[in-house]
Write a structure and sequence with these properties.
Elements lengths: L4 H9 L27 E5 L10 E4 L7 E4 L5 E5 L4 E4 L14 E6 L7 E5 L12 E5 L7 E4 L17 E3 L7 E4 L6 E4 L7 E2 L26 E7 L12 E6 L6 E4 L7 E2 L8 E8 L4 E7 L10 E7 L5 E3 L12 E6 L7 E5 L9 E4 L7 E2 L1 E3 L5 E3 L1 E3 L29 E3 L7 E4 L4 E4 L12 E5 L9 E5 L7 E5 L6 E2 L17 E8 L2 E10 L6 E4 L7 E2 L8 E7 L5 E7 L4 E4 L6 E2 L8 E4 L7 E5 L2 E5 L7 E2 L11 E5 L7 E6 L5 E6 L7 E2 L3 E4 L3 E3 L9 E8 L2 E7 L7 E2 L14 E3 L7 E4 L5 E6 L20 E11 L2 E10 L5 E2 L2 E5 L5 E6 L2 E5 L2 E5 L6 E2 L4 E9 L8 E5 L2 E2 L5
Parallel strand pairs: 28-32
Antiparallel strand pairs: 1-59, 2-3, 3-4, 4-5, 6-7, 7-8, 8-9, 10-11, 11-12, 12-13, 14-15, 15-16, 16-17, 18-19, 19-20, 20-21, 22-23, 23-24, 24-25, 26-27, 29-30, 30-31, 31-32, 33-34, 34-35, 36-37, 37-38, 38-39, 40-41, 41-42, 42-43, 44-45, 45-46, 46-47, 48-49, 49-50, 50-51, 52-54, 53-54, 54-55, ...
Protein name: Xyloglucanase
Pfam families: CBM_2 (PF00553)
Keywords: Carbohydrate metabolism, Glycosidase, Hydrolase, Polysaccharide degradation, Signal
């Protein structure tokens, strides 16, 4: 759960810190015409639902059902009440401003609910080349204007769960405050976010850093001003600035300040506790209480001690209202909210409690007494006040089978965002390192023996960092390598996969590949605290088994599968390039290629592999045992390179990459890397991938994230790079897209784009012959005879796996199909791949997905599923296609 977010970003953004002038051309191919944004694409996410840290949730205080969520690297979202989904608001952020996908704070205007603000910027050190900004919108985030700041902001920095650092004055909504990091103090705007100036009277810019000795500037940065809270009871009327303002500061001795004259002067609150940081300051103006959640660190991962305090604004009295003695805490407090409909009800979270679970506390008497979301009956047994249903995002169980008192799914971790709906005491949402959870019957908590129901409330919010993508010619249409959650096998792009890759669960998958002519063979490499760093699958990624690491491996690196799946080449972190035959039970060192090289395979010749390192291209023709440096020159000097070999084209290699001030663009080799030709007109390129050829074209479609004709975007070529079409637009840019790209070999025009925080984006063209949305279509009406082969391939106590082959034995092609059957017992389908399914009682219907709708005469389509059973597990009865009986093969 987000433990590796920093590592992921460092790895995936290494190539993202690029900009500059076009590199010089090396060789002559006909210059491409100016790129045109002529195609119209429909863009969606391959559904994962969540996958990243949500440090902030903000409800508007004056309009019901208006809420926003912020993420650390994946932008901001607005809640859609009618569909209970989230709408992304910052997809317009482009390549040069990729840091503005990190959101440090969001503020929704309580006077004019159409107005919303976002303080953006990802890092305060030099990892982010641009300064921060405050974005302002007058249409709830549909469009934005920007005010650049003279300093950086840190949406993905330590302390990012504190806040909110941005706030709108509830009486004079032209006035906003922004708490800055890095010693830049408190800032104010008096013209609704158009201009900003420092509040020079504010006395303390903060002094706390997570690790002052960190030379990178990441953990050593001063976390600064962490939150701003207005006391709306002190306003002088509409248009008059609120008199009393509270500000939180990252200073363990001086954590809270107050102004009583609308920000003209400030003072440290007398009598305040010391030795802690105030993560949140939430005011109950009706009762005159300022509640504060304290931790001994800035979070979001760390925190070993914490306290909750209540400050009486009228008398200045401080009361320790912590629900546990300080000696009994092993966590800090951060999530903090009050019930605006029921003054005196307050809730808080133990945000940094990883084991056995986070804890949520609730008080209905202003903190005098507390109850807990769970408690021990007799250790290690727990009694929960809640139920959890994660069937909409089943991977949230992590495939775990923990020992009590740990449970799966967990309540969460990094629970710094916690909000009760100000209009509905029964609705509460909270963010974790992986999702947003919520409830619609929270007040059941207060009933004797009552339980409230928790479920994911995250649909539409996609926040994974994507390291690699693959779209095999058969099986699942999409395989992904992701930071933090490992990756998924998508059999349907519109449904959440049941589980991430397991056995082993990598904290981040850094690379994956499949055997081109045997795509059931898949390999992935990744990072893991303890265990193998490589895994293999022989069923297209549905099930996995770990390989054996050679000595010295410390990280995933890159991996390549031979075209026929008989051998693999691996370039892990920590040691040199290795090769193996079989499935990695033993490895041998490759010669002639430096450690850290990027490796790929030829997609035709199973003994040919390629590598790249520091401007040199390497070739092996003996299965990776030895490599020889190519004589090719003029390639990018650094390692910000992605290259791929063309499926079906032996020795056909495309290479993208480079950096400002040196060679940067797209190169093509047709002789196995012996020579490369640079494509003129491609100013810069960072990824390259292939998809199904256009109707009438003989060469596969090329896709790249590039700058062509002076425009940054996602481009497509259907004529081997002679001409290019931009397929995205300025509203769909998703920040940095330099990690991976691939087309779909089965659907013309479809492209899968890796983002750094917005998940896997896929686009379908409106061109003739373009792709159709995946998922169910009109009821298919196949004609002609059919045959079914049903095989139980694995069975265990209470469960089984089955493969189904449906063959068109007629004389006419099918354009869509459904297969119906009935189980003779109590079998239930749990997960199905290469088809979608419904089940009612014993009756099951399997339906084609988008890419396998067409079945020619004599051809077959294969799908499989896992299920549960008890008693007996006999074969199904009564197979039928579109109502036509379909006999089983003998």
């Amino acid at each position: 759960m987000r433990r590796t977010r920093i590592l992921t970003v460092l790895l995936t953004l290494a190539a993202g810190l690029l900009a500059g002038s076009p590199p010089g051309a090396l060789a002559a191919e006909p210059a491409p015409r100016t790129a045109v944004a002529a195609d119209s694409y429909t863009w969606k996410n391959a559904r994962i639902d969540g996958g990243g840290f949500v440090p902030g949730i903000v409800f508007n205080r004056t309009e019901k059902d208006l809420a926003y969520a912020r993420t650390d690297i994946g932008g901001a979202y607005r809640w859609q009440e009618e569909s209970h989904t989230w709408t992304p608001l910052l997809d317009h952020v482009g390549w040069d401003d990729w840091g503005h996908t990190g959101v440090v704070s969001v503020a929704s205007d309580p006077v004019d609910p159409d107005r919303v603000y976002a303080a953006v910027g990802t890092y305060t050190n030099d990892w982010d080349p641009t300064n921060g900004a405050v974005l302002r919108s007058a249409d709830r985030g549909a469009s934005w204007e920007k005010a650049d700041l003279p300093f950086k902001l840190g949406g993905n920095m330590p302390g990012r769960g504190m806040g909110e650092r941005l706030a709108v004055d509830p009486h004079d909504n032209d006035v906003l405050y922004l708490g800055a990091p890095s010693g830049h103090g408190l800032w104010r705007s008096t013209d609704a976010g158009v201009t900003w100036s420092e509040v020079t009277a504010f006395p303390n810019p903060g002094n706390y850093a997570q690790d002052p000795s960190d030379t990178s500037g990441y953990a050593s940065d001063n976390q600064g001003i962490t939150w701003v809270t207005f006391d709306e009871s002190t306003g002088g009327g509409a248009g008059t600035a609120t008199g009393t303002v509270y500000v939180g500061v990252a200073d363990k001795e001086n954590a809270v300040y107050r102004s009583t004259d609308a920000g003209a002067t400030w003072e440290r609150l007398a009598g305040q506790p010391t030795g802690y940081l105030a993560h949140k300051g939430v005011l109950d103006a009706e009762n005159g209480y300022l509640y504060l959640a304290y931790s001994d660190t800035g979070g979001p991962y760390d925190g070993g001690k914490g306290r909750l305090y209540r400050y009486a604004t009228a008398t200045g009295t401080w009361t320790d209202i912590s629900p546990a003695a300080e000696a009994d805490t092993y966590y800090g407090f951060s999530g903090l909210t009050v019930d605006r409909q029921r003054p005196g009800t307050v809730m808080a979270t133990a945000y940094s409690s990883w084991w056995p679970d986070t804890q949520i506390f609730r008080s209905t008497d202003s903190g005098a007494t507390w109850s807990q979301a769970w408690s021990y009956t007799s250790y290690p047994d727990r009694e929960n006040r809640y139920t959890m249903d994660v069937s909409s995002s089943p991977w949230l169980t992590w495939g775990a089978n923990p020992t009590p008192p740990e449970q799966t799914p967990k309540l969460g971790w990094m629970t710094e965002a916690l909000e009760i709906d100000p209009f509905d005491s029964d609705r509460m949402m909270y963010g974790t390192g992986a999702t947003i959870y919520g409830t619609q019957n929270l007040t059941n908590w207060d009933e004797a023996g009552g339980t409230f129901a928790i479920e994911p409330m995250v649909r539409g919010l996609e926040e994974t960092a994507v390291n690699d993508l693959a779209s095999p010619p058969s099986g699942a249409p999409l395989l992904s390598a992701l930071g933090d959650v490992g990756g998924f096998r998508h059999t349907s792009l519109t449904e959440v996969p049941s589980m991430m890759y397991t056995s082993p669960n990598f904290t981040s998958t850094t690379s994956l590949d499949f055997a081109e002519t045997k795509p059931d063979v898949v390999v992935r490499a990744g990072n893991l605290d303890s265990g193998p760093h490589i895994a293999f699958s022989t069923d297209n990624g549905a099930n996995w088994f770990g390989g054996t690491d050679p000595s010295g491996v410390s990280g995933g690196g890159t991996v390549a599968a031979g075209a026929d799946g008989s051998r693999f080449v691996w370039s892990p972190a920590g040691t040199g390039v290795q090769y193996t035959t079989g499935f990695g039970t033993s490895w041998q060192a490759s010669t002639g290629i430096p450690a850290g090289a990027i490796v790929e395979s030829d997609r035709v010749d199973p003994t040919t592999f390629y590598g790249f390192k520091s401007g040199k291209f390497y070739v092996s023709t003996d299965g990776g045992a030895s490599f020889t440096a190519s004589a090719a020159t003029g390639l990018p000097a650094g390692d910000s390179v992605r290259f791929k070999a063309l499926p079906g084209g032996e020795g056909d290699v495309w290479l993208a990459g480079g950096a400002a001030g040196g060679p940067y663009g797209l190169w093509h080799s047709t002789d196995g890397g012996a020579t490369f030709t640079k494509l003129p007109g491609v100013d810069a390129a960072d990824t390259v991938g292939f998809g199904k050829a256009a109707p009438g074209a003989s060469y596969q479609t090329l896709f790249t994230s590039a700058e062509i004709g002076g425009v940054r975007g996602i481009f497509r070529s259907t004529d081997e790079g002679a001409t290019w079409t931009r397929v995205n637009d300025d509203a769909h840019q998703w920040g940095w897209t330099g990690a991976a790209i691939t087309g779909d070999p089965r659907v013309y025009g479809r492209v899968y784009v890796a983002t750094n925080g917005r998940g896997v984006i896929y686009g379908d063209t409106s061109d003739t012959g373009g792709g159709t949305d995946p998922g169910p279509g009109p009821d298919p009406t196949p004609t002609g005879a059919c045959e079914v082969t049903y095989t139980v391939t694995n069975q265990w106590s209470g469960g089984f796996q089955a493969d189904v082959r449906l063959t068109n034995t007629g004389t006419s092609a099918w354009n869509g199909w459904t297969l119906d059957w009935s189980f003779p017992g109590d079998q239930k389908v749990n997960q199905m791949w290469n088809a979608e399914h419904t089940q009612s009682g014993t009756s099951v219907t399997a339906r084609n997905v988008g890419w396998n709708a067409g079945v020619a005469p004599g051809a077959s389509v294969d799908f499989g599923f896992t299920g549960s059973w008890s008693g007996t597990n006999a074969e199904p009865e009564g197979f039928a296609v579109a109502g036509r009986a379909c006999p089983t093969a003998t």
